Amino acid sequence: MKLSNSLFFLVLLLFGTSSAVGQMMEAPQWEISLSNPDPEPGERVTIHFEAEIPDDWYMYSSDFDPDLGPLLTEFTFEESKAYELLGEILPVGQKKKYNEIWEGEYTYFTDTANFSQEVLIKKDAPEFRGSIFFQICSDVSGKCIPFDTDFAFDAMGNSIPADTEEAETGSSGITDILSSRETTGVKGHETTAAGEGVEKSLKPFQNSFNRESDEDEQTWTGLLTFFFISFGAGLAALLTPCVFPMIPMTVTFFTKGSGGKKGKINALLYGLFIIVIYTIVGTLFAVLFGAGFANFLATHWLPNLLFFAIFLLFALSFFGMFEIRLPNKLVNRVDKQADRGGLAGIFFMAFTLVLVSFSCTGPIAGTILLQAASGEAIMPLIGMLGFSLAFAIPFTLFAFFPDWLSSLPKSGGWLNTVKVLLGFLELALALKFLSIVDQVYHWNILDRDIYLAIWVVIFALLGFYLLGKLVFPHEKKIESISVPRLMSAILVFSFVVYLIPGLFGAPLKALSGYLPPMGSQDFNMVTASVGLEPESSSNSCGTPLYSEFLELPHGIQGFFDYEQAVACAREQNKPLFIDFTGHGCVNCREMEANVWSDPQVLRRLKNDYVVVALYVDEKTELPKEKWYTSSYDGKLKKTIGAQNMDFMIQKLNANAQPYYTLLGEEGELLAAPKGYDLDVAAFISFLDQGKENFYRSESDSEQVSEISTILESGVDLN
Hints:
Blueprint: E1 30-34, E2 44-52, E3 57-60, E4 74-77, E5 83-91, E6 95-99, E7 104-110, E8 112-121, E9 127-138, E10 144-154, E11 185-186, E12 189-190, E13 199-200, H1 211-238, H2 246-258, H3 260-288, H4 293-299, H5 301-318, H6 328-337, H7 342-356, H8 358-372, H9 379-400, H10 413-441, H11 448-466, H12 483-499, H13 525-530, E14 558-559, H14 562-572, E15 576-581, H15 586-596, H16 599-607, E16 610-615, E17 628-630, E18 636-637, H17 640-652, E19 659-663, H18 680-713
Parallel strand pairs: 13-17, 14-16, 15-16
Antiparallel strand pairs: 1-2, 2-8, 3-7, 3-9, 4-9, 5-8, 6-7, 9-10, 11-12, 15-19, 17-18
């Protein structure tokens, strides 16, 4: 998100996104109990499985269409003559939900997952052994993690040692126990021998990027940027007709009514109370709409359609069609409390200002709150703090320096101009919410070119308004325009000229996060020219392993085996793009549909990288000679998915998908790994950074090699 010097970008830039990066997460623990401990032969008992699910995460159930997409929770019992399974495992208390990505209904659990299995006891003291394969996902972080947990318990429900020699798992504890033992390899890519019973240890990738600190820095940078944008919005609110005339009136009351030092203290308290009131609103908003609301806002039609209507009402209000006011009884009741005097009186004076100015400040503050709902949980509080600080400063500052009041411009028609200008901005921003609904339900009525055409018209009309060519009924026609209006009109028309190439497919990178996907563009001259470029293909490296049942989206030619991809990357002298993904990862599909589909992203993936997709939930069993025991958890890895998950854990200390990693020739990371993030511009920057670092390191290596050759030859460098 970037700040702009123009007021026209002030509200527009509120639509930034924050990135999420995968990290190691501990598998939920299962509690197991029997309906009748120590049962007799011939008796039927029910085994209860219960798992605590972390906050803001959910677990898929076992009773929806297995072909839908998400991974069902599966219980596998080892065969035993001591008992017989009666029927299928049954979920208890599951919820239902329709998902637009999978285009179907699935069942899931939040907080606690409960399953039951009825069994018939055939022998005394039976022992139950098996495994539970399940997946948890988060709408907050955009991560999905599959786990495969073993269980072993007796007839009393007590845990017994599991037979780890035959167990296989992709689960992992949060403790990092990566082995430090050396392995053989070439240029950072080890090729450890494998086979049943052979323990395999992998060295982590060379990582010069501190992922956690980078993420924290991005979070704080995003919050600080949002604070200053909200602060700017508060300054804009001061220039509206409802607020600006109140400044000299309020300051005069404190300087003349109370006088001297006491008046300044009262003015300071007045400003503090304004900040407190708005900050309380932000805090309540943060509590009511927690972190989970961000994904709901980003994907569900209901809030987006509602916010579109709200922004449209805000715009019509600013245009003068009607005024949004709070009930007069409420305003008068609060105003009476201001006569009480003392701290309570000052507080209610501040409260009265907030209520009276609501018709002008409400839409601006509402815009901040709606944007905050799609970011960090603390963003509503940060936004209201910045907004109220800017809003309160003049009332306190002018009380300390009353002579400055004479320098304020007089109230007049320019205040209404500011209000109408904000109305145009609200109208443009309303389209963002309607666009999200259009994308989710594939209406295709607000494609990128249509969206841009409407923006061109809106901002062109704003430019004509500033030049006095467009006049609203409640305004007087102006005979001449001031220099500020002329300069503002120049800025607006410059923005319109910037938008026009986007109608023909120009990327408009500065606005890419606010526009519909490039793939929705009907007429794209840029794509046509890009399509003429020859695309690189990985087919020259041989037929990809497992390509008969695995595939990459959008016609990308790539691999599904790490070693094969590494060999191809070296042959083609390209960096490696590793996509840690899963069949049941809904956010992986969302990234592919909304980010990978962008022509600029797709061109980079096809031409600049060798792509390998490592499915962590692929259950295809490998030949026995490829099995190995992981040094991480001591368990046998037999399937493609289990080995890919173990690879991810040992090499990156992460286990959540989607997770994108850029790798150089020496096995070094070329950029900090990236998780779920629908910001196309950020993903392009991620790919460009990796490519730049790859060729820079290659150039450095060549220079070092040349210097070494010169030194070995004994040539005098002087």
